Amino acid sequence: MHGMSLIVKNITRLVAGFIAIFGVYIVLYGHVSPGGGFAGGVILAGALVLIVLAFGEEYSRKVFPHDVAKTSDALGALGFLLVAIFGYMVGGFFVNFLPRGQVGNLFSAGTIPISNLAIGIKVGTGLFGVFLTLALFRRQRDRAGAGSLNGPKGGGPHGGET
Amino acid sequence: MDPVLVLLIALFGFMLIGSLIAVETRDLLSSVICLGAVGFGTSVAFLLLGAPDLAITQVVVEILVLVVLVRVVITRKDETYAASRSTLAVGSVLLVLGVLVAVMFWMFSGSGQDRLRMRPFGDPLMNDETEASAAAPAGQPELATTATEPASIGGAYLKHGLVGTPVVNGTGAANYVMGIVLDSRGYDTLGEATVIFTAIIGAYAVLRRVGRQHHARDVADR
Hints:
By secondary structure, chain A is mainly alpha-helical. Chain A has helices at residues 6-28, 37-55, 57-63, 66-90, 112-161. Chain A has one domain (6-151). Chain A contains 5 helices and no strands. Residues 130-147 of chain B have low confidence and may be disordered. Chains A and B meet through helix 2, helix 4 and helix 5 of A and helix 3, helix 8 and helix 9 of B.
């Protein structure tokens, strides 16, 4: 993947940031308005996938390396589990131990925004990592397939001549 | 007739046609795009039935899956369609089965005493009002309506989910769905997150290249 044309790249430059901000908004306001960690995380992954498709894989490796995706995927899952375990220390599994606050505010509903954030990070980076792995796998398979096709064809007559 | 119901029926017809084309077409790209149309129809149906959370998730996942399928999975040459299929035989059997199921639903969906009481479309079991009237014995509906506590789980969540009772704390989340998913039923969501995590780890493990080559070299050395 070497990226697409100049038009696609320019449009992506304009749009990708807004898509990512919308994903963050959906994650952070999941307890106030429709949305939540999963949907916002998928939107974030969509913004990253757009960058990969438009600019090629080499550019995206600078922006968001594969190892970072793997690590933050695991950290998001761990964070969600930690919220549950902190609740266990206070009273029971998944007990909402933080103050509820004013209904409708950003900082309300106790642990729910924290859980949303953890799930958003986990889903977004995890799906992006799977996309990168699939793209990488396909490129290698294409290269391997081309190599095995060219190998006997190129090697056969060559060997016969010499 | 309810305009929402008319829209829904039109939408379901659209989704039916889209899925038929997705199954029957010979071009993989067309099939994937028809699948995307079906997913979009599902999203709009969720929106019409009053579930914006599900609609957002559905449309976003649909877009990502479509992009992944088009860009990554489909290769230029795919000859899996070359195998001949006995479309007529399979289709007629499926049609007969579908008619049988439809007749069964029609038989069971009546309102008589001996028939199963199936819910009307778009009116789930957890709806409060209809549940109260359905739970009431015949002839004395005031028995259920005078009760102070809601008769169903959904009604209880709607009544006590936000503020809570003296016994149970409310979630404090204005979005009731998130309050249920991440607070009241948080353990359930942890299971879902585990499923996604395992699926992603499985994709990494199946599609990796380094570990497999090292393993092959180790086996060869032995």
